[in-house]
Fold this protein.
Amino acid sequence: MSGTTAIRASAQRLENAEELIDSVETFIFDCDGVIWKGDSLIDGVPQTLDMLREKGKRLVFVTNNSTKSRKQYGKKFETLGLSVSQEEIFASSFAAAAYLKSVDFPKDKKVYVIGEEGILKELELAGFQYLGGPADGEKKIELKPGFLMEHDESVGAVVVGFDRYLNYYKIQYGTLCIRENPGCLFIATNRDAVTHLTDAQEWAGGGSMVGAIRGSTQKEPLVAGKPSTFMMDYLANEFGILKSQICMVGDRLDTDILFGQNGGCKTLLVLSGVTSLQMLQSPNNLIQPDFYTDRISDMLSLKAASV
Amino acid sequence: MSGTTAIRASAQRLENAEELIDSVETFIFDCDGVIWKGDSLIDGVPQTLDMLREKGKRLVFVTNNSTKSRKQYGKKFETLGLSVSQEEIFASSFAAAAYLKSVDFPKDKKVYVIGEEGILKELELAGFQYLGGPADGEKKIELKPGFLMEHDESVGAVVVGFDRYLNYYKIQYGTLCIRENPGCLFIATNRDAVTHLTDAQEWAGGGSMVGAIRGSTQKEPLVAGKPSTFMMDYLANEFGILKSQICMVGDRLDTDILFGQNGGCKTLLVLSGVTSLQMLQSPNNLIQPDFYTDRISDMLSLKAASV
């Protein structure tokens, strides 16, 4: 579930979109900063997706956001007027459940969740028993001398994602399961430093919740979302596609582009999100996509001449 | 504020306490597992401390517990019938304030605290302005679209210690200060994985709170408590003692003994706390103290013959 990155030659500005489109059969899109920004669709997105579908390309949408399920995420696309099916959406909440399936996590074991509703919904759909999540958001610890927190010994995995209701109860519960239940897995939906709860600023992300559990267990998590290659492997298996036939499109170098590179895919950075041209070209940046362009709708104009 | 550890020869069982006592002028004691366990004094402690004082040894008590100030900690000694002055106590709450003093932290800047009362009291005594701490324990974030959390731009340091009231408000506030205020320091009182809130079990420690902020800032903290050498350097300067003239006594290999070794001191492991003889002698353990013994009162009997 991890990969290595070789230093690549500098990214090229995308000049011949037709060639890129013809060279792959699947486009994986990150959502925030690529498809939308907060609650606004980025210019030209519907037309671009239509064009790619017309050319027979498979479209997949991935997000490290674990607070929503695939279904809930589908509603966001719908609200923005985009026609995307649930099966095309891969949120890290789904990835965590898919990971448990991939390791044949026993159905008689339970999952303790530090995170929000999306994770619970996906675990439920996958047929796993869980506890924790929002239900533990108001729980407090009674610190009388001799007090002991009991924990469920049948918890075989702790899934940690972004949780705006993180508290010490959850930290201790998750820590006890990982430290004391033999073989208990520690799964992170993602380790993003920041997330976009609102458009107005960057907010501490899933990396905080994962960091809290890492700090008390001194264990490294298995990461289900980007930039771990688990989702890429899953997609390749599920759809029977070659990774070299995938183009990963994203706005973040250290998650999206690294995710694509770890998976052996082609990569396209768009400058419509958090990464500026200056950041891409900084000598401190070691992550170079194959191509970069301002926004995905550039694929329309950059192919118009040759159509 | 860090050090390296060479692999040492295996620890020797303490056989000649007289020789050890005569070879140093200061004993630094960890508290929990050495002086007391939870709320009970460990057998023979008062007599041992008296004997060492009679022999003219300086005694210092260090703890990574940051929830209490020196003064509050002094009361714990008093309750247990031990006569220890505030000046002999070095809690990591004090160490954080001492660190800020050592770097001439400007008095017109503020400190944001993720932690409990001990840190606030020590900052106050040191003359620093602070905000956060328990006062932010009940604060919630209102997640309306466009919502922005304002933060104080005069915060020049974030001090993070154990905080049983950790919440997302504090995580985001501390993260904003570190990410957005130029030069803002990130100081950890300690990174202990577990702590002893109650005797009945191990509880997630300061490492969780520090891990949460590390996860969202992707920065490493400056650690004021054990095993960083800051406190040792401070003690050596403050009292004008040579580190080779110090014996560090503790029950934990990866904090106490490493702390002593990082500081160039003699080290004595006691088996009255979390470390068993089996753990010490495990081939996986790379941290070897100079000596080990069951409890500090062994120093009484192991010197009796030669007195």
Q: What stands out?
A: Confidence is low (pLDDT under 50) at residues 1-5 of chain B. DSSP finds eleven helices and 16 strands in chain B. The longest strand of chain B covers residues 58-63.
